[in-house]
Amino acid sequence: MPAPPNTRPLPSLRRRFGHAITTRVFIGTTVIVLAFSGLVSYAIYLYRQSTREMALLNVTYIPLTMGVSEVAATQVVFNTLMDRLADDPAQPLTRDWLNAARRYRPAVLFQLTQLIHNTLRQDTDISEEERVFLKDIQGRLSDVRTRYRANEAHFTALFGTLDTGQRDEVLQQIERLKRSERLLNKVLASIGTDVKQHITRVSVDAVAKANNATLFLGIASVLLLLLGIALIISTSRLLAPLKKLQAAVTRVTAGELDTNIRIFRDDEIGALTQSFNAMTQALIARDQTLIRHEQLATAGKIAAQVTHEIRNPLFSLGLNADLLKEEIQLREVGGEAQALLAAMTDEVERLTGITESYLQFARLPAPSPRFTDPVQFVESAVAFMKGEISEAGISVAVDIAPHMPQWLFDKGQVRQALVNLIRNATEAIGESEHGHIRICAAIDNAELVIRVCDNGPGIPEEVRARIFEPFFTTKSTGSGQGLAMVRQICRAHGGRIQCETTPNRETAFAMYFPASATSPIEVSHADANEP
User: What is the DSSP string of 431-492?
Assistant: First the structure.
């Protein structure tokens, strides 16, 4: 059946759906999930970095800066005690405070270096920049601690001089130690400044990362909302034609079979639309076929009834015509009466032939298949028709494949079908010059194919669709039952008949009989229009 006029074929639908709805929805959902996951993952990463830096501040840098500040404060007290010792070398309390400070400072520095050491060892996620900075501070603190240990010899000498009472020597040693302590003060101040600046930078960086994480989470939320809205709109647009399909289905259900939908898309809905339009066309064709079958069935019943009703009167007319003919001959009536009687007799015989064909078509018996040699069968039918063909001035050729197996069919019915095709070919050629009929038989795809070809004027395309319908004929005489009966016989054997055009531009009628047709099939005249 041709495609509906308001649809067009989509090549991609014949292969696969190039832009399937499921694919589009999947891609849209995947984009949303990936975009949201990426932004959220990056925000989580920033939060983790910020949390790690804040933890580093709390665990390491703040205790470190407090320890350095404490050592620096102790250093200030230590310098003050040194000044007091210079003013009053004999003061024992000052000496006790100096000894306590001497022991306290290295202990604090050792704790700070251990703090840095533990941080570097335990925190594996610490950045390389942080490691470099902490190692630098650790080295500088260790250097200060080393200098403290180096000054111990000077303090021992100082306290030894204090015991001897040599004031000038005591003042010189104190001044020497104060110069060394001032240098250590500068180093400690530098370390404290660097640590505080680094704390400030880390704090700012942690806050910035936290703010960026919050920003990215906000962007992710907005993006998710926008992409979700876009997906909803896109999905709604994709599924919008379903309303048209639903309305069309409702109309078809109500009996409006001429409903067609104009939706040109290369997805499942486009395929569904094409299938729907094809379905409506198929339903229209089916209804037309059913109506035609009903008409044919009714016509067949009427024809059978009418034929039955007029057979007896025709028989009486024929019998009376024969009696009248004998009476005319006995009385030697003139030629005009004999001519009228002959014309009447011919018409009675013609009507009798028509009624017989109607009855035969309407009451075709079920086939009685027997295994038959196709070669002998075809040659016998051609020999039977050869006289009629030759009388029409037409040449005939037989092309039969050798060594064909016996085939199961009703010899009488198939012979009748073949004779009808040969007679139709003879009538189609008519008085054309160089008329030629070719009868072929062969096995093709497990089917026995008997083909009758002629070089007559051919059959117009607009007529081919109806040539197998009962009562349809293009000839001035005839009942229109010949080809309909041939099709009925083929269908009764599980086969088919086709009207073809050969490469030589011959018109060919091919009967196909399958090997599997071992059981006869009952076919009524109402089915004669089916292929």
Answer: T-TT-EEEEEEEEETTEEEEEEEE-SS---HHHHTTTTSTT--SSSSS-S-HHHHHHHHHHH
Classify residue 517 by its DSSP letter. Answer: -
Q: Tokens representing 205?
A: 């960086």
Report the 10 Å Cβ neighbour count for 4: 18
Quote the CA–CA distance of 467 and 529 in Å, as a whole number: 9
Check whether 448 has a pLDDT greater than 90.
Answer: yes
- CB neighbourhood size of 152 (10 A): 11
Quote the crossing angle between the two packed helices 62-87 and 92-122, to the nearest 10°.
160
| Token pair of 192 as six digits | 């404290």
Say whether pTM exceeds 0.70.
no
Residue 352 sits at φ, ψ, to 5 deg, of: -65, -40
How many whole angstroms separate alpha carbon 63 and alpha carbon 113? 11
CA 255 remoteness from chain centre: 32
CATH of the domain spanning 21-238, picked from 3.40.50.2020, 3.40.1160.10, 2.30.38.10, 1.20.120.1730 = 1.20.120.1730
* Alpha carbons within 13 A on the beta-carbon side of 283: 15
365-527 matches 21-238 in CATH topology:
no
Mean pLDDT of the chain: 77
Domain ranges of the chain: 21-238, 268-360, 365-527
Q: Which two tokens stand for residue 380?
A: 């016998």
CA atoms within a 13 Å half-sphere pointing along the CA-CB vector of 232: 6
Residue type, 389: I
Query: Tokens 């066309």 belong to which residue?
Result: 281
Contact 488, 523 (CB under 8 A): yes
Closest CA to 402 of 382, 376, 384, 381: 376
Alpha carbons within 13 A on the beta-carbon side of 437:
27
Place of tokens 């018996």: 365
Q: What is the pLDDT of residues 150-183, one digit of tens each?
A: 777 777 777 667 666 677 777 777 777 778 778 8
Q: Residue 231 in contact with residue 180, Cβ under 8 Å? A: no
The three-class DSSP label of residue 328 is: helix
Residue with tokens 């010059």: 433
Cα atoms in the Cβ-side hemisphere of radius 13 Å centred on 443: 11
Tokens of 269: 């809905």
**Could you give the CA distance from residue 488 to residue 357 in angstroms, rounded to a whole number?**
13
The owner of tokens 């073949």 is 418
Q: Which residues share a beta bridge with 498?
A: 510
Q: Does domain 365-527 sit in CATH 3.30.565.10?
A: yes
pLDDT of amino acid 2: 41
Averaged pLDDT for residues 60-80: 80
- Cβ atoms within 10 A of the Cβ of 512, count? 18
Binned at pLDDT 50, 70 and 90, residue 314 comes out as low
What's the pLDDT score for residue 407? 92
Give the residue among 217, 216, 194, 211 at the shortest CA–CA distance from 50.
Answer: 211
